[in-house]
Amino acid sequence: MPAFDDLMAHQRETEALGQVADRLGWDQETVMPRGAAPQRAEEMAAMEGVLHARRTDPRIGDWLDVAKAPDAVGDAALRLIRESYTRNNKVPARLAAELARVTSLSQGEWAKARADEDVAAFLPRLNEVVALRREEAAALATDGDLYDALLNDYEPGANGAEIGAMFDAMRPRLVDLRARVLAAEPAPKVQGTFAKAAQLALSEKVARAFGYNFDTGRIDLAVHPFSSGSGRDVRITTRVAEDDPFNCLYSTIHEVGHACYEQNIDQSYLLTPLSRGVSMGVHESQSRIYENQMGRSEAFTGWFYGQMRDAFGDIGVQSERDFYRAVNRAEAGYIRTEADEVNYNLHIMLRFDLERALIAGDLAVDDLEAAWNDRFAADFGIVVDKPSNGVLQDVHWPVGLMGYFPTYALGNVFAGCLNAAMRAAVPDVDAGLARGDATAATTWLRDAVQTHGGLRTPVETISHATGAAPGPEPLLSYLEAKFSDLYKL
What we know:
The chain has helices spanning 2-30, 37-55, 58-66, 72-90, 93-116, 119-140, 146-154, 160-183, 196-209, 245-263, 280-294, 298-312, 320-327, 341-360, 368-380, 406-425, 429-433, 439-448, 458-466, 473-487, and strands spanning 219-221, 227-230, 233-238. Helix 2 (37-55) packs antiparallel against helix 5, helix 5 runs antiparallel to helix 6 and helix 6 (119-140) packs across helix 7. Strands 1-3-2 form a 3-stranded mixed beta sheet. The protein is mainly α. The protein has 20 helices and 3 strands. Its cofactor is Zn(2+). This is Metal-dependent carboxypeptidase. One of its GO terms (molecular function) is metal ion binding. Broad specificity carboxypetidase that releases amino acids sequentially from the C-terminus, including neutral, aromatic, polar and basic residues.
């Protein structure tokens, strides 16, 4: 027990410092003055150096050799600490610090290149990021597959070959459904000008409706919406376009799903390895089920329609049914974060294939824009008109998140499984959503998934919640039923 207690005390301080590093990242993407970027890069590198030293402290190995956990929770903590210790000892401190420095600089440079529609200006930095991540993957890989080494940072236990096979199995049904939907009569659109202040006021209202706790959270603006933090400080961001209120409102609901996962983890796990979501796929299952199966349901949009009319007056649609169709309008578009449920996974599959090729060395960074544009035209039937609608639209590659993208589609698969299980267990979910009250749904998700944090592996987490191994069938069946109804297929 003394070894276990000493190890957990060390880990608690490391987790606290990790929270400080996260806050630096939140600040950089929300309120940091642009001129501070070079200094922030040095600060992030210094913090990463401190964290890397703590995560590779030789005493951790000594403690792990003799530590005895008092219970199953302690066993899970030891498992996660051992995995982290093994991983971090494979990555040189110099490389960890350099990655933190370069990706901090890269984020700001990407934002400028995106605003300027200038891919060429950003390519030298992106080349540097990819080279560093390939070096890190080479240090981590145990079986020679560089991409799998990076993927496991975000989805422990997953591998690219299995995900690729799942995507290949899903693609024909998604492509067929999309073709039938796009050939049908288009759904209506909301119309008008939607004031920023009113959008933000309504976004706070829907955040509360889905259970976001503002005592331990806040909403700010960012170029790319995200959620940050865990435990008792969990922040989200959104963005506003005055001609597109759904950009703000559904980004908010999406990030609330992430944030509620973190806020609802058992407080006894605070500042331990169990105190965060177990994987990005499971995390994404929460944001996607909040946004889509709940937030875009006919029950919730019936209530939401009244809220929109109260906030903005005439919005160009005249019935709850038309509003439901407008919220779920399917069309071939450029932007992943704005994609409907039918097209979304196809956006992910494109990115998955391209980043696997980048890490494998089969695709040069200098050829990435052309490869993106060719693949997008083939997959979506439209030509990319500008870089911000193409290869520069996402922040992930600029900040080094190679291996992250497939977890979005995996999260959709998990969400499909959870939605089926939740509706079987809680038949009155829609009755609450129709009143703008998501409590029945969020309580089930809290108890089935969120409170457990990192206690189980990702697949075990979903299997424990649903009673079955996860697979794509519930998601595909849900999409086919929903969009067949919406478009009278």
